[in-house]
């Protein structure tokens, strides 16, 4: 579309952003209105299934005493779906990418300490089960085995 001068995608992208460039490209296609409706329908289905699976996973992990094969309560899945949707809406209407970067830094900072504890625990486990690395760095001691010559006359 850009090469044939049908839609100035790069100009729209730089001026108005990616959503406007996508819509302009879809409008320029044959049956653009129909394609845009299909695009919006597919995007809505994608978002719904993504939020649903994320809410289900969060509800499953956060639920206590779930037996194998048992599903989390429906109200709990709805709660997590509302939380995920509200986070997306706040990020969309807030600073967007800058807010997302700040949120990622804030949530990742405590994980640095947790990862440090996990590494220390892993190293302790290795030492308890396998000993210190110095034990494996020593060269193996050679043992000489004396063998008697084979008597060819006995065969």
Describe this structure in words.
With 155 residues, the chain is mainly α. Among the domains are: 45-93, no CATH class; 97-136, no CATH class. The protein is built from six helices and no strands. The protein has helices at 9-16, 18-28, 32-62, 74-93, 97-130, 133-137. Helix 1 packs antiparallel against helix 2 (18-28), helix 2 crosses helix 3 and helix 3 crosses helix 4. The longest helix has 34 residues, at 97-130. The relative contact order is 0.04.
Rg from Cα: 31 Å
Structural class: mainly alpha
Shape: elongated
Unreliably modeled segments: none
Number of helical segments? Answer: 6
Biggest β-sheet: count, sense, barrel? none
Order of helices and strands: HHHHHH
Number of strands: 0
Quick structural overview:
The protein is mainly α and 155 residues long.
Q: How are the SSEs ordered, and which strands pair?
A:
Blueprint: H1 9-16, H2 18-28, H3 32-62, H4 74-93, H5 97-130, H6 133-137
Task: Offer a few descriptive terms.
mainly alpha; 155 residues; 0% strand
């Amino acid at each position: 579309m850009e090469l044939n001068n049908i839609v100035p995608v790069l100009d729209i992208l730089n001026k108005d952003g990616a959503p406007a460039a996508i819509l302009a490209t879809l409008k320029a296609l044959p049956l653009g209105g129909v394609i845009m409706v299909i695009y919006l329908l597919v995007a809505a289905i994608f978002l719904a299934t993504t939020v649903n699976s994320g809410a289900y996973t969060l509800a499953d992990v956060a639920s206590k005493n779930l037996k194998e094969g048992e599903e989390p309560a429906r109200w709990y899945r709805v709660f997590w779906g509302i939380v995920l949707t509200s986070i997306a809406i706040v990020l969309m209407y807030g600073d967007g990418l800058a807010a997302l970067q700040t949120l990622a830094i804030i949530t990742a900072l405590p994980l640095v300490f947790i990862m440090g504890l996990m590494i220390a625990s892993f190293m302790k486990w290795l030492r308890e089960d396998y000993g210190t690395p110095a034990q494996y760095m020593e060269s193996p001691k050679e043992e000489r085995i004396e063998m008697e010559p084979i008597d060819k006359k006995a065969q």
